[in-house]
């Protein structure tokens, strides 16, 4: 398999999901925070989506629009480039994270500025833009409140929509008091941990940046091909500040974000806020088309990012993950995410969508534990506004992960050997009957009062918290042969 | 109507009582049940763990074993889901075209037990009596896979003298997920802890479901915690005639 080290996405040196989850689970504070936050947002989402009697039709339309657009992606991207160019913008094409970082760094350098303000953006996190700019001596200021919290804490985001979901307000207060001064305006003395006080401190800190910084970097939720309009959806208005005040605006956008027309956009603008924050409409929707004399940024650059997306598009099952509109509904309903939090996924894309997107963007061999980080319970598929069948893709990627492991090793893994043996037994009623007899005898040896408390080898993780019933003396097929087989002829 | 029971390898080995219960209920309703001895496994464990090629012989065996029946009934929502969703895909991707045709022909005749009772036999009253406090856990494959909806509850509600109580956060996964419970044992245990708490909070004596795998998981947790709450496949409740004349 190829080396996808240029693609970012994953945090290098991250442990596998089971290891990372093990330590995350010990953090009872985190689990409490997550449970409260995800269950509140889950209920809000259900309430506002139930208000629309055509919710299911909207989901179906969204999925269809994404399918059609991805089938003709090349056409719509070229159309987008023409429209943006005609409106006064400049379009750049980036094959991977390294190329996108290089393009953005050069664009910032060309302005002569050393600072940029940032709109909350998954694409720039995916490519590790802030770190790259820092190496070039350019400071990037995150202006989304939660991203600011993450940045001040030299932390990592743990949720797509609410990246600081793992922090409580006392922790945030301490962080503001200690760190804000190192990045700009300090937090006021005696800062308390009331949400309004914290928001006011962030507002004052950020206002200074908005009024002085000349370059902004954003992502995009959507881009309309036929008009060249780029759209950012947000809650705080900080994004709007970045998109309107600086003189240069650089937008980094995954190529799958293009939609053909405004009629297509309308479908997503109904689905996205309801699915993400549980609101009928988000407070700020910014849409801009190129540049306008004397108003807004006078220079606009759109960087179209591939970074593994055309590889993903080539996979007939996996490609549906590209329909994702980054709403986070799947994270909020996921029983695994609710327990482990986002950091355990070791990727900027956590949760169920991360478990299907990350391995496809970086190669399944580089994120092999993620497709297994799910019970396949299906809650994500039900919640997804664009109907990505996440369990289907997970099962598909599990097969790819097994195959990648097989191809990389000369000897089969212990699991592969066990699975092969089980397959042989299970394809033979005689061998199955013999195995049942053996299990029954073995079980009775291990069991006390019909219960097995300790299982050997890799099964100990199971038996740490669960008793296992001893297999019965007689399998069903044996019972049937003894008691029912004679009857059949009589009928 | 020729009815075959697909017991599933797991029930065959660990929960034969569930198979006997299915037979009891169907015979009580006046139907003969056959058990083709060539049957084994639907391939779910291999499929969900990523070992697709290993499942293909099992798909072929299933199609061969049950080809001649009008209905194949199985007391496992997850195995029914595996057959319905994945056997056609596996046959198409890995099998000869002839297998694909046979699978497509058979799959619409495969029913989960409560589907068969309510949709095919058109009954919700199977003449059971079970004077106990019971709660029902809709397993993920019942709820979101097969979309069984309230079929199991409609059947349970007609059971004489049953005291059916609600399960808090019923629709959340118990954390089993097959090999997930081994590969991600700690996360699975954390989910299990919330599920067992819900069961205890329900006040039920008995927890039932349409999948013995999830029940073994939840029951295993309850047993380890020293709880007296028992688990039973809902077929066993529908088969019960406790104290009936």
Automatic annotation (TrEMBL), chain A:
Annotated spans, Disordered: 457-491
Chain ranges of the LUD domain: 79-305
Record keywords, A-Z: 4Fe-4S, Electron transport, Iron, Iron-sulfur, Metal-binding, Repeat, Transport
InterPro entries on file: 4Fe4S_Fe-S-bd, FTHF_cligase-like_sf, Helical_ferredxn, LUD_dom, LutB/LldF, LutB_C, NagB/RpiA_transferase-like
Annotated Basic and acidic residues bias: 482-491
Ranges of residues in domain 4Fe-4S ferredoxin-type: 321-388
Pfam family, one: LutB_C
UniProt superkingdom: Bacteria
Domain Lactate utilization protein B C-terminal: start-end pairs: 407-484
NCBIfam families on file: LutB/LldF family L-lactate oxidation iron-sulfur protein (TIGR00273)
PANTHER family in UniProt: LACTATE UTILIZATION PROTEIN B (PTHR47153:SF2)
Protein name: Iron-sulfur cluster-binding protein
Species the sequence originates in: Streptomyces endocoffeicus
UniProtKB/TrEMBL annotation, chain B:
InterPro entries: Cys_rich_dom
TM spans (from-to): none
Domain of life (superkingdom): Bacteria
Pfam families: CCG
Annotated Cysteine-rich domain residues: 3-84, 134-218
PANTHER family: LACTATE UTILIZATION PROTEIN A (PTHR30296:SF0), UNCHARACTERIZED PROTEIN YKGE (PTHR30296)
Record's protein name: (Fe-S)-binding protein
């Amino acid at each position: 398999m190829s080396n996808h080290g240029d693609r970012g996405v994953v945090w290098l040196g991250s442990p596998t999901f089971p290891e990372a989850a093990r330590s995350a689970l010990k953090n009872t504070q985190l689990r409490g925070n997550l449970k409260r936050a995800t269950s509140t947002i889950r209920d809000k989402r259900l309430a506002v989506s139930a208000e629309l009697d055509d919710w299911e039709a909207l989901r179906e339309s969204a999925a269809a629009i994404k399918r059609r657009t991805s089938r003709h992606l090349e056409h719509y991207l070229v159309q987008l480039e023409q429209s943006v160019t005609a409106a006064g913008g400049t379009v750049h094409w980036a094959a991977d994270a390294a190329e996108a970082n290089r393009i953005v760094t050069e664009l910032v350098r060309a302005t002569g500025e050393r600072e940029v303000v940032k709109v909350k953006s998954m694409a720039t996190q995916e490519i590790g833009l802030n770190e790259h700019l820092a190496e070039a001596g350019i400071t990037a200021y995150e202006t989304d409140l939660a991203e600011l919290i993450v940045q001040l804490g030299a932390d990592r985001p743990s949720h797509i929509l609410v990246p600081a979901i793992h922090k409580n307000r006392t922790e945030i207060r301490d962080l503001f008091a200690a760190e804000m001064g190192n990045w700009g305006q300090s937090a006021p003395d005696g800062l308390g941990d009331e949400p309004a006080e914290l928001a006011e401190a962030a507002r004052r800190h950020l206002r200074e940046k908005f009024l002085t910084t000349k370059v902004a970097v954003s992502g995009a939720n959507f881009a309309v091909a036929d008009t060249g309009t780029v759209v950012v959806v947000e809650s705080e208005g900080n994004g709007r500040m970045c998109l309107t005040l600086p003189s240069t605006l650089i937008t980094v956008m995954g190529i799958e974000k293009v939609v053909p027309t405004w009629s297509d956009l309308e479908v997503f603008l109904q689905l996205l806020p309801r699915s993400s924050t549980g609101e009928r409409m988000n407070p700020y929707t910014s849409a801009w088309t190129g540049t306008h004399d004397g108003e807004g940024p006078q220079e606009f650059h759109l960087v179209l990012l591939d970074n593994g997306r055309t590889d993903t598009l080539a996979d007939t099952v996996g490609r549906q993950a590209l329909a994702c509109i980054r709403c986070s509904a799947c994270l909020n309903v996921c029983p695994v995410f609710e327990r482990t939090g986002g950091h355990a996924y070791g990727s900027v894309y956590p949760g169920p969508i991360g478990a299907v997107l990350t391995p496809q963007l970086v190669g399944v061999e580089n994120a092999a534990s993620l497709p297994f980080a799910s019970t396949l319970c299906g809650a994500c598929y039900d919640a997804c506004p664009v109907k990505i069948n996440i369990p289907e893709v997970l099962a598909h990627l599990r097969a790819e992960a097994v195959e990648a492991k097989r191809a990389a090793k000369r000897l089969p893994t212990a699991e592969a050997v066990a699975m092969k043996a089980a397959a042989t037994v299970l394809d033979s009623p005689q061998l199955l009957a013999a195995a049942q007899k053996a299990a029954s005898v073995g079980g009775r040896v291990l069991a006390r009062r019909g219960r097995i408390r300790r299982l050997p080898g890799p099964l100990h993780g199971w038996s740490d918290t669960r008793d296992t019933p001893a297999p019965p003396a007689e399998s069903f097929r044996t019972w049937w042969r003894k008691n029912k087989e004679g009857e059949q002829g009589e009928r | 109507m020729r009815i075959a029971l697909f017991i599933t390898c797991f029930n065959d080995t660990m929960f034969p009582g569930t198979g006997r219960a299915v037979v009891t209920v169907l015979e009580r309703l006046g139907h003969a049940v056959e058990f083709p001895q060539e049957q084994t496994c639907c391939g779910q464990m291999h499929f969900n763990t990523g070992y697709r090629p290993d499942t293909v012989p099992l798909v072929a065996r299933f199609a061969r074993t049950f080809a001649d029946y009008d209905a194949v009934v199985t007391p496992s929502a997850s195995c029914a889901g595996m057959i319905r969703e994945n056997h056609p895909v596996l046959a198409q991707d890995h099998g000869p075209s002839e297998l694909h045709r046979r699978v497509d022909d058979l799959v619409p005749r495969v029913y989960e037990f409560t589907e068969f009772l309510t949709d095919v036999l058109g009954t919700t009253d199977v003449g059971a009596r079970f004077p106990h406090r019971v709660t029902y856990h809709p397993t993920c494959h019942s709820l979101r896979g097969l979309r069984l909806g309230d079929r199991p509850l409609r059947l349970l509600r007609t059971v004489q003298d049953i005291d059916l109580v609600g399960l808090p956060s019923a629709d959340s996964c118990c954390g089993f997920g097959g090999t997930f419970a081994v590969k991600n044992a700690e996360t699975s245990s954390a989910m299990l802890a919330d599920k067992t708490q819900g069961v205890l909070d329900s006040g039920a004596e008995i927890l039932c479901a349409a999948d013995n795998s999830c029940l073994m998981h939840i029951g295993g947790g309850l047993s380890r915690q020293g709880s007296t709450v028992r688990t039973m496949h809902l077929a066993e409740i529908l088969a019960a005639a406790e104290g009936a004349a």
